[in-house]
Amino acid sequence: MKILVYEHVSGGGYAEQLLPTEALAEGFAMLRCLVADLRAAGHQVTVLLDSRLFKLDPPIEATYTSQVLYINEPKKLLINLAKNNDAIYIIAPETGQTLQSYVELIEKTEKVSLNSQSIMIAKAANKIALYDGLQKNGYPIPKSFILNVTNSITQIETAITGQLTYPVIFKPVDGVGCSGISLIENATDINCGVAKIKSVSANPNFIAQEKVEGEPVSVSLLSNGKKAVALTLNRQQITLAKSADSCYNGGCIPFEHPKKQEALTLSERIVETLNLRGYAGVDLILGERALFVLDVNARLTTSYVGLRQVVDFNVAQALIDAVVTEQLPKKASTLGVTCFSKTHIAPLTSGVYRKTTRIAGVMAPPFPLSTGNQNTVLVMGYGNSIQNAHAHLEEVKNTLHRCINR
């Protein structure tokens, strides 16, 4: 097939704007890995790239690349390029209905959309609607309620003390990853938490949620819109902050836990209830006595970078099969363990950047861009055990830093 792939951060969604380095590292790594798998399966792949990245000749195996210079170009280019492609896949954040709007655009081209239907994306992307649907279907979620950024600090504090016990979590209703999420340990943190919500979301509503203790994990799944198959349980490294940005730092795949099968089965039921198709991710907390659903992602997630290394089939081809022919893999056998994480370095020269692109395990290199005082790199290690994978990850980081400091 001829497949057009658009990843929002690296593909021009921030043209004429400062590129967010954290999101760029995750986005480019997902794009790079998906393209490599599609090419390995025999498909031709066309991608869009922000002109600043295009000029750097990034390590990506696309058959064709179209550069984006201006902010209004991506959607126009997607419509034009769709004419010469059979199928299209969108990787984009849910914030501001970005993912939904791009998929709606693709659906109008009458080409094969490898994403979930836009109407289903909308249901999963809005956390208010998502939590309402999960509760009605009896799925376990942390105790949550809706607040509004126009409420006074006193009104918010009163609502929290009347329904929850500190610490609590503030999160935007349309956020992606850890964007806009705050840890609220007491009333003095409320003002900063509200400001963070305002900075990332135009929606005035936000969610206050009890902080449940346990292991943060995700489940990667494939679905044909009716039946879902869980592939792996993934450990997540999450940092919850008050004034600083909360962040997703990386993870390990697969992750063994006493509640693994319960988490896999629950995630399959949720994805089937939401009628999602293609690739999906479910975020959960695995506590000692119970598990809780935090979020559902109707799109490719960063875990794909590690997942593809440990399962015994081509996940990109399996995604296509799930959507086009409704065929699903019976079970995913895993071979080894991957650990991946983001690391930060100072801005580089173009010459040093080119050397870093040749380091095995550097999935998203440190692009030499004007993005402030640091760049974000996504690196990965592989081994036959979690200890070996961690050790390999540290080796990759050390190799990267030696390359930079020569």
Report Rg: 20 Å
Largest sheet: 8 strands, antiparallel
The amount of helix comes to 25-40%
| Count of β-strands | 17
End-to-end span in angstroms?
44 Å
The main sheet orders its strands as 14-13-10-11-12-15-17-16
User: H/E order of the elements?
Assistant: EHEHEHEHEHHEHEEHEEEEHEEHHEHEEH
Average pLDDT score: 94
> What structural class is derived from the secondary structure elements?
alpha+beta
In terms of DSSP E residues, the strand content is 25-35%
Shape: globular
Given the structure, what is the number of helices?
13
Uncertain spans, ≥5 residues at pLDDT below 50?
none
What is the secondary structure topology, with strand pairs?
Blueprint (H helix, E strand, L loop, with lengths): L1 E6 L13 H20 L3 E7 H4 L9 E5 L4 H10 L4 E5 L6 H11 L3 E2 L4 H8 L1 H10 L7 E5 L4 H11 L4 E5 L9 E3 L5 H11 L4 E6 L4 E10 L3 E12 L7 E7 L6 H14 L3 E10 L4 E7 L6 H7 L4 H10 L12 E9 L4 H7 L5 E3 L10 E9 L2 H20 L1
Parallel strand pairs: 1-2, 1-4, 2-3, 4-5
Antiparallel strand pairs: 6-9, 7-8, 7-9, 10-11, 10-13, 11-12, 12-15, 13-14, 15-17, 16-17
Helix pairs in contact: 4-5
